[in-house]
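Posting this for the archive.
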Amino acid sequence: MMQSKIARYGNSLTVRLPAMLARELEFRDGDRVTLRRTQRGVAVERVPGSRLAAWLQTVHETEAEAGARTAVGREVID
């Protein structure tokens, strides 16, 4: 069991995840999570695909298709 402290962040309250727990859960800075009330408190769940969606937003142009250029060496494309 790990303990953490609630702190103020602007008008909101935050809970810090200890680094060891964040590593175990593979949480990264910028991951999106869902908060759900439970009978005993709150559950924190990663939004499925949130990391992939964030990464895809960094793509600014599409890659050229393989084989779209002329060969530079002794490549043979069948």
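The first strand starts at residue 6 and ends at 9. Strands lie at 6-9, 12-15, 33-37, 42-46.
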